[in-house]
Design brief:
Blueprint: E1 2-6, E2 11-19, E3 25-33, H1 36-50, H2 58-69, H3 75-93, H4 103-115, H5 126-147, H6 153-157, H7 173-183, H8 187-199, H9 203-207, E4 214-215, E5 220-221
Antiparallel strand pairs: 1-2, 2-3, 4-5
């Protein structure tokens, strides 16, 4: 590692040399640091990344996560994840050390997301909040599984939002009548489905019915 002063711009240039995973010597550098301390801080982050030391910042770990995951996912899938990371995660966690991020900090971030309103006063949808939280948790899970992070703080903090509601499917009258015709030779099932369809009751309500609930003279059920 070395820091050089560039006289023309009065800034510092940091050069970091390392050996990659297959034994080849590599070099990376960055220009434009105003102070030697800033340049040295960048060098330390590079060292943490190449040694997988989780004393690195969240932003630096995201670089590792990207290198590990991007080529394994479809382009559109990664684009969605990358947008969430850049706009919802890095602004809050980017400068924090991976090993120091706590459940309390996750909760504070969750509250920021829950209280957010766009220019029209609309909040994020519960489904979107769930997606964003899942992405943050996925990054920490990756750190736990492959980089020896002790635990995922998202699990302690708990989730936010909710999964997409299952789409409800309905039979048209014509569809039900076709089904009922097939069921006529099974009286118990036939009459059960007749009650469900024509009375609009739920399965649990149907199963709770007793003979006393039926009034055949008035043709009612209660």
């Amino acid at each position: 590692m070395a820091v050089y002063k560039e006289e023309k711009t009065n800034t510092r240039r940091a050069v970091y040399r390392y050996t990659d995973w297959n034994g080849e010597r590599k070099q990376t550098q960055k220009r434009g640091f105003k102070t030697k301390r800033e340049a040295q801080a960048w060098e330390r982050e590079q060292l943490n990344k190449t040694s997988a030391d989780l004393d690195m910042t969240f932003k630096s770990f995201v670089d590792l996560y990207t290198a590990d995951m991007k080529t394994r996912l479809k382009e559109n899938t990664w684009a969605t994840k990358d947008h969430i990371i850049r706009t919802k995660l890095l602004p809050y966690f980017g400068r924090l050390k991976m090993c120091n991020i706590t459940a309390q900090q996750i909760i504070t971030w969750q509250n920021e997301m829950l209280n957010h309103k766009d220019e029209n006063g609309k909040p994020y949808s519960p489904v979107y909040l769930k997606t964003v939280h899942n992405q943050l948790s996925a990054i920490f899970n990756h750190a736990v599984r492959y980089y020896n992070l002790r635990e995922n703080p998202c699990k302690k903090a708990g989730s936010m939002g909710k999964k997409k509601n299952r789409e409800m499917m309905f039979w048209t009258k014509e569809q039900y009548l076709k089904f009922a015709e097939v069921m006529m030779d099974k009286p118990l099932s036939f009459y059960a489905f007749e009650m469900l369809y024509w009375c609009g009751i739920r399965e649990g309500e149907l199963l709770a019915l007793t003979p006393a609930d039926f009034d055949f003279e008035k043709r009612t059920v209660s």
